Amino acid sequence: MQFFKPCVFLAAFLSSNFAIAENDFWQLDGKLQVGAWSSNRSLDNTEAVFPATVALKSKVNLADDIHVFADGRVGHSEYFADKNKYAVAREFYLDYTFENADIRIGKQIIAWGRADRINPTDSLTSRDYRWLAPEEEDARFGNTGIRYTHHLSDYTLTSVWLPQMRTSRIPLNPQYVSQVSIQQPEKLDNFAFKFDHIGEGFDASLSFYSGIDTMPTLEINSENSTPFALLNRRIQRYGSDFAYGFGSYTLRGEFAYTQTGKDKQEFSGKKYDYFQGVIGLEKQFSNNLNVIVQTVYQSAFSWRGFASQSQQQQLTVFQQIINQQPAENYFGIAYHVSKKLLNDDLELEFSGLGLSQNQGFLMRPRMRYQVNDESSVVLGGDYYNGSDDSIFGRLRDNKTVFLEANYNFSL
Amino acid sequence: MFRPLLISSFLFAVNCAYAENIDVQQLMIRNDASSKVLDAKSDMTMTLENEDHQQRVRKLTALTKLKPDGVNNQRILRFQAPADIKGTVTLLIEQTAQDDDMWIYLPSLKKTRRLVSDNKRDSFVGSDLTFGDLIGHKPSEWNSTLQKEDTLDGKAVYVIESLPKDESVKSHTGYSKRLIWIDKQSNVALKTDYWDETGQLLKTIQVSDVRLVDVDRTKWQFMDLNAENYQNHHKTVLHFDNYKVNQNLADKLFNPSSLEKE
C-alpha cells in the first residue's frame, strides 16, 4: 500500500506524456539522485542516511502558446523526512501566453526577490527544510492558484491568487515533535501583486502580499490534542527589491515590512511586526570567480525580552527562535563565493551566514564535478554553530556531510 | 650610394599610398557589421573537448535581433541539452554608450537574474569563447593596423593587428593583442589569434562555411567555428543549423521577463 501513491503518480506522469508521444510535442527530463548523508535534517539524531530519488520534469506543448508543465519527485521516504511520503508533485500547471500577457493556472513555484538566497519578499514559496536536497532550491514546492502577468515594455504587473497554500515544514527538536500538531491555515485566500521594472540599466520591483505566512509559529494549542501547535498566521507584507549593474559589480537589495497583527500587549507565540532588509554587492573577478557579500538586518517592533529563565520564559525564547525574532534588532553577514574550473566541469562553492546577538553561524561548502554530459557528483556539507538558544545553535544536530551522484536523462 | 635611399623612398611612398587607400578603422567597422542581420533564428551545437579528448555537447537555440539604432544587437541563447543545463537562457543586449545588459534565467532558481555586465572576459558556459567573443569587440576600443594582404584557404584577406586602446579594454577583454584575417569579399573575420594579458599566445578562432544569408543587405554568417586554446589544450567546435534571417521576431521575445518561458 505504501508504494501505491508513488506508482500512481509515476503512471499519471508518464501516461500524460505517452498519450501524445506520437505528436512529438512533449518532453520528459529526469534526474536520478543517489546520496549518502552522515545525518538527516530532521534534528532526530539519525545518522548514515542513503536517500534515492528520481526527479521528473515534463512539458507538453498543446499549442504554440499553451503548455502544460509538471515537476515531481518519486523516491525514498528518507529523502522527504516522512515515513509516509514517497512522491511529491512540486509543480503541475497550464501556461497560456497571449499578446502582452500570460496566465498560469495550477500548482506552481513563484519565487520572488533579487537578493542572493535571503529573500524577504519571497512570500509565495513553501519549502520543506528537512528534505535531503544538496541545493536549497530543490526543497521548494509549489502552491495551487492562478498567476496573471501583464507586460508593458520594460514593466510587468503580476497578480497572484492562491486559494490553496501549503506551509513550510521545519525541523523540530525531538522533545517537541510528539507535543506538536500541525494546524492548517485558518483562511485560504492568499493574494499578491508585484509591479516590476526589468530592462535597460536596472531592475526593481514593488510588491504586496496578503495571506498566510509560509513559515509557521509555535504556539500553545487551544484545541488541546497536543500541548503545542505549528500555526501559519496571516500577514501583510510590503516589499521592494532592485538590482543595478555597473562595471564588474552588481548591487542588489531587497526589503520587506511585515504586519502580523500581533497586539502590542499580546502574550503569544505570534510574530511581532518586523522589517527585514538585505543589501549586497556581487563582484565578478577574472577567471570565473564570483563573490557575493550581503548584509542582513531585521528589526522586530514592540519586541519584548526576558530577564530571567522560568519554564514559560524558556518556551517564549524557543518560540522567538522559531519565529527568527530572538532579539529586537540583529544583523547578519552572508557570503557566497563560487569558482568554476576545468571549463565549468568543476565548481567550488562556499556560502554561509553569521548573525549578531549570539545567534550563531552557518557554513555550506559544495564541490560539484560534471563527469560527463549525463553524470555528476556533489560533495558537500552543512555546518551550524551557536548556543542552544540561538537560531543556528538550535540546528547543530543537522550538521551533515554528504556525497550525491546524479544521472540526467531525457526522453 | 643613392640606391638604398631611392629604394626606401620608394617603399615609403608605396606605404603612404597604401594607407590612404585602406581605412583600417572603416574596415573594422565593416567587419563588425558584416554579420549584423535584422534578425535571425538558428540551432547551435557546441562541442567542448578537453586535452584527454573527452567531449561535452551542448545544444542551443539562438535568436538575435538588431535594435532600432541598427548598431546594437540583442541575443537570446536557450540551452536545450544536456539535461543539467536545459532551460537555462541568457539574454545579452549591447549598449553603445554604457555597460551592456545581461540576464540569465536559471530553471532551478525559477528567477531571471541580472548578470554582472562587465564579464566579457569570462568563458561562455565553459567553452573557449568569452562573452566578449560572442558579443563582438567594439572597433572603437581597439587600435587596428594593417599588417599585410594575404590569402587564407584560397581567399584574399587583410591581416589586421588590433591592440587595446587602453589598460581598461585589455583588462575587460583579457586580450593584449588580436591578429585578424578579414575576408576581402565578405568582411568576415575568418581567423583570429588572441594573446592573453601577459602577452602569451592564448587561442585561435577560425570560422568556415561563410554564407551570404541576406542578399539585400549583404550580410554574411559562418556556419562552423573552431576554437583552440593553446594554454589548456581545450577545443570548442560550434556548428549552426537552420540559420534563418528576417523572421520578424517579436520585440517581446527579447524582454528579460519573457526568459522564464520554459
Overview in brief:
With 411 residues, chain A is mainly beta. Helices cover 9% and strands 53% of the residues of chain A.
List keywords for this structure.
heterodimer, A: 411 residues, mainly beta, 3-stranded mixed β-sheet, 24 strands, globular, disordered N terminus, B: 262 residues, alpha+beta, 13-stranded antiparallel β-sheet, 4 helices, 13 strands
What does this structure look like?
The complex is a heterodimer of chains A (about 400) and B (about 260). Helices cover about 10% and strands about 55% of the residues of chain A. Chain A is mainly beta and about 400 residues long. In chain A, the strands form three sheets. Chain A has an 18-stranded antiparallel β-barrel. In chain A, strand 12 and strand 13 form a beta hairpin. The longest helix of chain A has 15 residues, at about 5-20. Chain A is globular, with a radius of gyration of 22 Å. The model of chain A is unreliable at about 1-10 and about 15-25 (pLDDT under 50). In chain B, about 15% of the residues lie in helices and about 45% in strands. A 13-stranded antiparallel beta sheet of chain B has the order 6-5-4-3-2-1-13-12-11-10-9-8-7. The N and C termini of chain B lie far apart (about 80 Å). At the A-B interface, strand 1, strand 16, strand 18 and strand 24 of A face strand 5 and strand 6 of B.
Q: Helices, strands, pairings?
A:
The complex is a heterodimer of chains A (411) and B (262).
Chain A (H helix, E strand, L loop, with lengths): L3 H15 L7 E14 L7 E3 L2 E12 L2 E10 L1 H4 L6 E12 L2 E8 L17 E2 L12 E2 L1 E10 L2 E10 L9 H4 L2 E3 L7 E9 L3 E11 L4 E4 L7 E4 L2 E13 L2 E11 L14 E12 L3 E12 L10 H12 L6 E13 L4 E10 L5 E10 L4 E11 L14 E11 L1
Parallel strand pairs in A: 11-15
Antiparallel strand pairs in A: 1-2, 1-3, 1-24, 3-4, 4-5, 5-6, 6-9, 7-8, 9-10, 10-12, 12-13, 13-16, 14-15, 16-17, 17-18, 18-19, 19-20, 20-21, 21-22, 22-23, 23-24
Chain B lengths: L2 H19 L2 H10 L5 E11 L5 E12 L6 E9 L7 E5 L7 E6 L4 E4 L16 H5 L6 E11 L2 E10 L2 H7 L1 E9 L5 E8 L4 E14 L4 E11 L5 E11 L17
Antiparallel strand pairs in B: 1-2, 1-13, 2-3, 3-4, 4-5, 5-6, 7-8, 8-9, 9-10, 10-11, 11-12, 12-13
